[in-house]
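Can anyone check this?
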Amino acid sequence: MNDPTDKPQDNMYEVVFPVPDVTGSEGHLTLVIALSGYADAGNAVSESASFLLDALEHRPLVNFSIDELIDYRSRRPAVTMNHDQIVDVSDLNLSLNVVRDNVGKPFLLLSGPEPDMRWETFSTAVADLAERYDVGRTVSLYSAPMTVPHTRPLGIIAHGTDKRKLSDMHTWGNRVTVPGAASLNIEYELANRGCDAFGFTAQVPHYVAASEYPLASLRLLQEVARLAKLELPLEALEKESARVAELLNTQTNDSGEVSQLVNLLEEQYDQEAQRRQELETSPLLGPDGEMPSADEIGAEFEKFLASQPLRPVEDSSSLDDEAQPPANADSSATTPEDTDAHSEEAEQLSAGQSEDAQAEIEQSDAEQPEPEQPQEDQAESGESGEPEKRRRRRGWKPWFRF
């Protein structure tokens, strides 16, 4: 690895000497990327970077060459004239700083205008610096104008390589395509190198996107502090956000047209919140609205079966009852096979058995109840005049109506 104080051959950047101390962090450093000029509704990204540099101790680590990366026609520096003389020309500064939070924990901040040129080289250079200074996590800041009201909580849309860190946050959900950006290129390059890369996008009300909206900066920095476990002094941003919110409420109440627009946005916001709640509670869909995989469905089914109490085995007598014939079918009804056996027995009795035995059998037959027949059988019996006893000897099978 080259000496970090060496100046790269392509003049992309130079490392400040002496190199500032980056020790004191437990584990890997966090790199916060706040490049202005793209997706910066409400100036949330640029104001976030300015707030961190104004409120916290910091030292420059790397200065990037503006002449190599910036088209001055797209970002013309401000020039101040006093009467007939030029007294000041503002500087464009794209740099990597070492910043320490309230308790002295260091992190890196890449801030300044987004490069107009050489994105691939710029992204590779930032990724090389991240590896050199042992960066383990990158957080990029964005803000976009959305059709949301200022009277509802400002939402943050998150994306990243580690879904476990985003489990309680709103994400893009489905596949989306957005315009490219230098910070997105850096995320992609770092993710390919095995570094965790995250991005937070503030949802700024579209009717204040052209003005400073400190609430968006506050929400972005709150998420950065939560993810990177940093102690940031956000009290001043909280007070400024409350002041702007009160001013917006006053302007809304004074204008019927603006009030009507805000009410419509509130209805749309509430409907979307309800839809998202239904997705989060749906057993078939994940919080992001995606269908679960086959393995996830199988695991949930096994979990459901394991949670069910054991059922007692049903009594076999109840099953036998279901197989019994209808109530009008006599259990004593005989089949043709039974009739033949009975006739053979009668012949044996008439041949040589005693009269007492014959009498006992006849008495038993007399006590046996006669089977009930369907009306159709009775009608046929009446027409043919067939004796009842003979029909009983034939036997019959019950019929069923399905």
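Reply from J.R.: I decoded it. The first strand starts at residue 13 and ends at 15.
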